[in-house]
Design a protein that fits this description.
alpha/beta, six-stranded parallel β-sheet, 37% helix, 267 residues, 16% strand
Amino acid sequence: IKEFKPDFVLGFGGYVTYPVILAAHKLGIKTGLHEQNQIPGKTNKLLSKYADITFISFEDSKKYFNNKVILSGNPCGEKALNIFKDDKTKLGFSLHKKLILIVMGSLGSEIINEKMKDFLCSYTSDMNEILYITGKSNYDNYKDLKVNNSVKIIPYYDNLSALMKSADLVISRAGASTISEILSLNIPSILIPSPYVANNHQYYNALELKQKGVSIMIEQKDLNSNTLNKAIDECFKNEQNMKDKLKELPKLKASTIIVNEMEKEVK
């Protein structure tokens, strides 16, 4: 830090952030934090007393910080707004049917994959089509699965945000980046929070969207064909209402907000 001589140091959480922000603070350099999740991680909680400003992605996160707090959103959401839409017909999907995109992150989830097999094998619809992304490490268990023509299974999709723009419903974990994209693109969602993350933060991420009426949450322990089919039916039944509520939520240009506030701090 002494060699580089930054005007501002911004940390995005994680244990590697702690010594860097602390060192910058001791050297009298302006510092900031960005909290992606609804419940802050341990590092950001500890560092907030040293940071000049904290940027948050969820309104309810403000209560956890005592320094200057600004609702910025997540830069991933702004990125999703600016990318070109991928044409779903290139994957063999119909323009006249609803596309349900199911993805649990680039690596997928072995537990979710096992729970989804019955659902995918039994799913039939004249109105909806499904793209199920297993994750690269889980595809071998799925490539021979017998499914209806309305279901396609692939291991990975390189430009997922662009494909999300063609989706009518997203079923996913409740990570901060995915949620920011869902909110930016006004897509109704079914969120299945991972119970294996620090402070159970994905549950609280999903809960905030559920309370706003823009998502349905299914806890992993409750996930099965019946609960998922019921949730899908409910989403499409209330699709317009969910989209209207999504449109009412602010579309924050996170990167722009963060850069502008950092510039104000160092003037």
